[in-house]
Design a protein that fits this description.
606 residues; alpha+beta; Phosphoenolpyruvate Carboxykinase, domain 3; nine-stranded mixed β-sheet; eight-stranded mixed β-sheet; 30 strands; binds oxalic acid; binds manganese (II) ion
């Protein structure tokens, strides 16, 4: 479609301004057809950036290798440019919006020379759903267009819903690598150096400006930028919730259904939990979403959730038939692989795929690589953040209602992280505000290899939203408290703190996790109906010793350890929250959370 055919005056003007600034050689409005997708792949094959995989084994699948400087979200270059620094809060990077726009306009000047500008109209959420939002991303990356085809609903049908004057979130994206006359990418992933990368959000004007990266959440602007950072601001202003949560459907042996969402920091197994295959006989889990949930109140006073995304952008390493069979099935066709290793017969391989590397491979940097199991320091063949982009509809466990425009009614929220000690396997909040307290103290163990901190340190990641909240986290806590105060608590989801990652003194996991987590989900299911053996403790409502049937290999002593109230550990936890965590939010930390902290402390001391 041509620019002149756009019916939305504001959109047309906005694109024209971008064209004048970025001076692409051509402009195309994306229609979202499969022919368009194929054309993007063909363009990238021509540029030497896409490798066709073995079409017998992996039909419709392609491999990309990004630049080593462009392999992950760049949190240090991600900005919340609200008018006031205080609105971005202590957990976000901030630059004055006028200053940031000036800098970025400089970078955007003629940045698309030699390239085509693609205009991608997209819907986060089923097209036309009351809960969905429309964004329009302009980009000079065919890789981004192809990925957006999978991750969002894109094209002409979105423009039809947008009409002549509908609301959309304008999103600029450029990889920041113009081409001189006759120059080609020639197999080199185009991007700008790290100090020129900017992932910027302007909450007041609901704008996203991204420059210099072509990878993942930096470039597929519907995901973290729109569906979390900008949407969290919209949700605050409009009275709903935009959360970093999976959504699952669970059916008990009697056929009763409930929907549960869960927030876990990155790398805590959200995709695995969303696609879990229960080991508990008669139970069934189906997937609605694996990363983001948007929730609004229905006329019946209940919270209804949609998955705003249409695909999975999952981490490949560690994904195998044991850890996530449904994901492995989802990525057998029509999948874009980025930074995994390539086998001689053009299959994919990664660390933790479940079998040894077959012969010599090409690693994610494009170099020959042969597995050397004796060498513990061998560089991985697949980048630890290598990804698959796959259509959600390909998941064998996808729930039939996953695209229901009115969403699914939520019965429970889970909060969790990797906590080797202290936090029990499962703990139900005594009230909404107690649940908000639990969300506010979510933390996860980090390894020294991943971040420059001491191994075993707990990185607090409230509500798993630390890198994704588009405003002051203290105000975000307030928003959650307000949601509770403004609605009938009996109809709100029940809140649970879970922890699959407890370790014994030898550092071994006590709980096997994965499909065995269904045993915990079953207890949660029953608790939502006021059933299931439960005991009141100072830290919350815990299962009675017989309420969760232990999986094979987990003994009575282990269950006791998993469900005990570690008084000394919790006192240290409370002290850490009081001394180190809550003070970060200054006077924006709602007093209700200090009241909650005091009352838990009092109960622990009683
Ligand atoms: C993700 C993340 O990629 O949370 O989903 O980092
Ligand atoms: Mn995520």
């Amino acid at each position: 479609m041509k620019l002149s055919e756009l019916k939305h005056g504001g959109l047309k003007k906005w694109v024209e301004e971008a064209v004048a600034l970025m001076t692409p050689d051509a402009v195309e409005v994306c229609d979202g057809t499969s022919a368009e997708y194929d054309r993007m792949i063909a363009l990238m094959k021509d540029a030497g950036l896409a490798t066709e995989l073995n079409q017998k084994k992996l039909p419709g699948c392609f491999l990309f290798r990004s630049d080593p400087s462009d392999v992950a979200r760049v949190e240090a270059r991600t900005y919340i440019a609200s008018k006031s620094k205080d609105d971005a809060g202590p957990t976000n990077n901030w630059i004055d919006p006028a200053e940031l726009k000036k800098t970025m306009r400089g970078l955007y000047g003629a940045c698309m020379k030699g390239r085509t500008m693609f205009v991608i109209p997209y819907s986060m959420g089923p097209i036309g759903s009351e809960i969905a939002k429309i964004g329009v991303e302009i980009t000079d990356s065919p890789y981004v267009v192809a990925n957006m085809h999978i991750m969002a609903r894109v094209g002409t049908k979105v423009l039809d819903v947008l009409g002549a004057d509908g609301f959309f979130v304008p999103c600029y994206h450029s990889i920041g690598k113009p081409l001189a006359a006759g120059e080609k990418d020639n197999g080199v992933w185009p991007c700008a150096p790290l100090d020129k990368k900017y992932i910027s959000h302007f909450p007041e004007t609901r704008e996203i400006w991204s420059y210099g990266s072509g990878y993942g959440g930096n470039a597929l602007l519907g995901k973290k930028c729109l569906a979390l950072r900008i949407a969290s601001v919209l949700a605050r202003d409009e009275g709903w919730l935009a959360e970093h949560m999976l959504i699952l459907k669970i059916t008990n042996p009697q056929g009763a259904v409930k929907y549960i969402t869960g927030a876990f920091p990155s790398a805590c197994g959200k995709t695995n939990l969303a696609m879990l295959i229960p080991t508990l006989p008669g139970w069934k889990v189906e997937t609605v979403g694996d990363d983001i949930a948007w929730m609004k109140f229905g006329a019946d006073g209940r919270l209804y959730a949609i998955n705003p995304e249409a695909g999975f952008f999952g981490v490949a390493p560690g994904t195998n038939n044991e850890s996530n069979h449904n994901a492995m099935e989802s990525i057998k066709k029509n999948t874009i692989y980025t930074n995994v290793a390539l086998t001689a017969d053009k299959d994919v391989w990664w660390e933790g795929i479940g079998y040894d590397a077959p012969g010599s491979l090409t690693d994610w940097k494009g170099k020959p690589w042969t597995q050397d199991k004796a060498n513990k320091n061998q560089e991985p063949a697949a980048h630890p953040n290598s990804r698959f982009t796959a259509p959600a509809k390909q998941c064998p466990a996808i729930a039939k209602e996953w695209e229901d425009p009115k969403g699914v009614p939520i019965s429970a929220f889970l909060f969790g992280g990797r906590r080797p000690k202290t936090i029990p396997l499962v703990n139900q909040a005594k009230s909404w505000i107690h649940g908000v307290f639990m969300g506010s103290i979510v933390g996860s163990e980090v390894t020294a290899a991943a971040l420059d901190v001491q191994a075993g340190t707990i990185r607090r990641d409230p509500f798993a939203m630390l890198p994704f909240c588009g405003y002051h986290m203290g105000d975000y806590f307030k928003h959650w408290i307000k949601i509770g105060k403004g609605h009938d608590e009996a109809k709100l989801p029940k809140i649970f703190f879970v922890n699959w990652f407890r370790k014994d003194d030898a550092g071994k996991f006590i709980w096997p996790g994965y499909g065995e987590n269904s045993r915990v989900l079953a207890w949660i299911f029953d608790r939502c109906d006021g059933k299931g053996g439960a005991v009141e403790t100072p830290i919350g409502t815990l299962p009675t010793p017989d309420a969760i049937i232990p999986p094979a290999g987990v003994g009575e002593q282990d269950m006791k350890e998993l469900l005990k109230v570690d008084i000394a550990g919790w006192k240290a936890e409370i002290k850490d929250v009081r001394d180190n965590h809550y003070p970060k939010f200054g006077d924006k930390l709602p007093k209700e959370l200090y009241v909650e902290l005091d009352s838990i402390e009092k109960r622990l001391n009683a």
